[in-house]
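From the pipeline queue, job 12 of 40. The input is one protein chain; the requested action is below.

Action: predict structure.
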Amino acid sequence: MMANSQQEGTDSNDQTLVEPPMLGGLTTFARVGTWFWRVEAGDRYEWDISHVADQLKLDARVVQVKIEESMPGGMSEKDFFPDEARSSEEGVFTGVDVFTVVTSNRFLTFEVRVPIKNQPVHSDLDSAPSDTYWVAWNGLTAVVMWEQGEPYRPLSGGQVVVSILREAVEGIGASLYVQNCNPGCDFQFLHETLRVVTDPDAYLLDLRIDPLDQEHVAIALPLRRSSLLDVECLGVMVNGGIESFAEFKNLGRRIIDLENQIRGNLGHILGHLNASNLIAAEGWKLSSIAPRWKGRGWRREVRHLISRTWLGISNVDILRRSWDEQCAWLETNEQDAMLLLARDFRSDMSSVRALDLTPVAETVTQVSNGLDNRTVVTATAFGALAGGLAGFMGSLLALLVQ
């Protein structure tokens, strides 16, 4: 059930919205992130989420750890790309930097307690809202829930959990890769913060516009139980949409990174051409000898850059098709999750769809044709010179024979 608008205290069907019975007028909030359990390709079958649980139990900041034993065990795997800041030019162009992420069929849940003064803050104007967080994580989808007295949504809420989980994952020889909105952002979650409410008629994933704050979203649970069970329930609810969005976002980031590399290559190509033209305009002077010597072989470098640029353009085309398919899947099959995903989804979609490499391809074609024409002209000139020289030698030999 999903309502686009509702009056405070009722949903769109005029059904009673029951706020959770918590002392002190506390409000429950939750954030969702894509935190990847990254493993080496050869180790993907060696892990179980219980290994991470064992590490968390050793951390004094972790109060309790649980795994739903009634759920069948098992792990699955998916491949993802790192962003440009955590890769290399070669990796971005060729895709050899792809890494494996393992996810569990069961959610690991745990409670964290860290004094507010010891928690990282997102900015100097922000503060952590609570010293206690409840977390659900399955290797990809992370949900962090907390209670606070104020109605606003502080950006620092839940940030401390990342370092705690990262230490646990690294303790078993793997790593935690947080997929941020972009490489320059240090926010560890999607940009929507959910207010958790109770509605006896809530069914499956129930997202609705928050009646207390129309700019944000609320998520409804049919009943409130223990905090660990509640956060696990939230994880199960959002998991399908988050997994699809994680793939969509990852493909979009790789497309953007490839486009950056391609335009960087074009800059190098044009830089070589500009330097060559400046030297040619100076003519054969004594002062031009050193620049000519330093710039020798630039055509070979330009041809290499042109080849890599075409490779990048081809890879963008392939990735763009996969991204379009994932985008269509989200819009068609994950409508229930779109209120949660909307802010990040719109931003990513507009960024990728704004990319246009047509001018780059046209410029590279023009440069390539120019180099090919020069090669033809040079070969023709040398051929004519060789023919003339051969004719001269033949005439000279004929005179000597006479």
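Job complete. The chain has a mean pLDDT of 83.
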